[in-house]
Queue: 4 jobs
Job 1
Amino acid sequence: MKFNKIFPVRRRLHAPSVALSLITACVMTLASGQETNNGKQERSALQAIAPKVINIWPAVAPGSEQWKQKETSLGSGPTQRIVNVTTPTLTAYLPDPAKATGTAVIIAPGGGFLFLGTDTHEIAEWLAARGTASFVLKYRTAPLEGENEAQLNQAGGARFGAQLRDHALIAEDGKYGIADGIQAIRVLREHAAKWGVSPDRIVFMGFSAGGSIAEFASVNPDVNARPNYAAPIYGAPFPDVPPIPKGVPPFFMEMAQDDNLAGPQIVAMYEALKAAGYKPEFHIYEHGGHGWNMRKQGTTSDHWLKEFYWWLEAQGLTKPSK
């Protein structure tokens, strides 16, 4: 199956216009849709289960020993984002033991490896209410200089533009997040029994840059630190699609045809998996753009999370493990 009519694979992005679009899309990623009554009830039911924050490295994360930047939250509510993350963590949303299936989902937010959205916690709550243990990954982001929100936003925008002009910078900025994603899998598998999950039912879900982490973790040469399932949502590996080894986990992939930021690379990743003999499930929506997450747009992409859950169901991951 060829997708060249949808996207010319690996075409270069035009930096000036796309830089502005990428900044806008990343902010829009953080804008959640209005909660339904059911969603409010689920959130209320989960208030009794306080999320637990776990440091994934025993000391300072390797490679950032000299970092001095201060982690800062920008904005508020559904558009809140975090920059200058130096201490990577997992925030655990554990389900009611009576509903627990033993399946765990690591959720990595997007943000161009420069900031992290916070609305992925809503997804974690949604999954936990259905018996799936969920762990939101706060991974390290590339350092930004600035004393206030305006300066940090300006620094982030400038770095986005630089990334789009030189994709090698995306790999440079993303190496810390990829290392943290792989470490998160190790930690979760090591402590699986304590958190009531099965070490062979670990799903790695990621959005945009977080999807790239999910993909690189899934082709990690260390097979013991790969997830058992991967779900990159409008996420793409940059600057190039990595070699596809043996033993890659089942993939669930989603994108919109009007995603002009990561679309070509997502298609390239799908075709690489197919060429290597795998059969990833790939949902391509007519509209949705880039960075929809939980934001409602009146498109079929609004229902992506249900599609993901149905995929979990087809994999046997929504029933208790034996």
Job 2
Amino acid sequence: MACQIARKISEAGATPFLDEADVDVGSEFEDDIRDFLDKADELIALFTPWALGRPYVWVEIGAAWIRRIPIVIVLHGLTINDFQTHPNAPVFLKKRDMIKLNDIEQYFSQLNTRVLSGRKDD
């Protein structure tokens, strides 16, 4: 799923970062993630029941929050209530507009519009 999302982000004209595709085996992946987040314009986080327990997901979200970039939460196998009531979910995400994976085309359409409007300014 994450690879398909990354492909669609790329097709929209943005540059995705996917740890399994963009971090070389044996590299300091924390540095790679931090370097990419330093340049990112937004973060899209795919939340599945097993992602809720992954510490690096929360670290990436915290870094995006500190940078004040948009954080897009995509849910798969979870309801909004599941996410909002999970003990790991930070308060600043609980009020955020979230989308289900089945509705992600709306995000890609909006992303494409943002990318195109950003290019007009160049």
Job 3
Amino acid sequence: MSMSIVIADPATVALEPAPITPGWIVEGKPEARAKELARSDDGTSVVVAWSCTAGRFNWHYSVDETVHVISGEVWVTNEDDVERRLGPGDMAFFPAGSSSMWRVPAEVRKLAVCRHALPQPLGVALRAWRKLLRIVTGQGGSLQLANG
């Protein structure tokens, strides 16, 4: 198992063409570009820098995706068809199986963390295994956030 720390600047990394599925485009000629920055050893998680020019398109999520807007803005719809603006510093979580309309007025750049969701029984078994390991090793294993 090869574990390496990855450090990258998603705001400036060079991106490569990553065309939007043509049938998803509703308006304009949005051009998307992306670059994979990191991938977990088990292949279930990937971190991607992504940008897109002006246009409007549907996006269908096959994986859980957390996005953090770096520059520009995008207007996204939720499951109730309510449109919300995401700008620099904003984040959003799109669960696998969901869909959203994206309206990009000029250009947007984001960092995306994509994770393949585990089937429910496997997720329960994994959480039980991790709990057992914490008990046996005496390690808490939980994330602690520092104040201030």
Job 4
Amino acid sequence: MAKITTPRRPAAIPGTPGSRPRSAPVGRAPNARSGAHAKARPKTKAKTKPKPWTPAETEEAFRRFQAANPAPRGELVHINPYTLLVAVVLSAQATDAGVNKATPALFAAADTPEKMVALGEARVRDLIKTIGLYRTKARNVIRLSEILIAEHGGMVPPLREALEALPGVGRKTANVVLNIAFGEPTIAVDTHIFRVGNRTALAPGKTPFEVEMNLEKVVPPPYKLHAHHWLILHGRYTCVARRPLCETCLINDLCRWPEKTV
């Protein structure tokens, strides 16, 4: 008697309805990982915001700055408000020390707007060529001198708006002139103050203007006139960018920087 055999069902052709890859189990996408085989992603630790300084701590910090340096002064060499204005304009993206090497000869030849204009842009450029961006700065010095003569009687105006209208003068420069030349309790935020304000958490901010506004809020009024100088000097010589000298810092115990060395 002949043996009866059942015909085998032909395999589905890939890409046709009803077909599926043999390597992919039903209900699971290829290469999917689950359970114990899943690779856990490392959790990133949330950055904690430093605790704000209390008014008493801020008062203590500036009391110490005052005790250590009762009458701080700016380091730019100048003769009068006009030469101060010129020196600050020249100091943009340059060091005070570098500016001080170039300005004695410049100010000996021209310590007023009238003399500066008479000196001429080419001669000014030659005298300050050791300073970065000297071509643009020489042009700005001549132009601002002309404006001072034409609009302010050759005098430096004690007004922020008038100062900021001059070529090469921004908010920081205006604040320096108002503070040093006219005794206004302004705070000029340069790279040093910006670093100190953020690193210590005394007055954090994403921009120099934010740091300035926060310092205006927290610095006690009796210390505002010299706060600008104390913070600049602190950032320039103690709270330096690469390796702050925490071991000699006057406000180490108040500072909120998590990486301080003491």
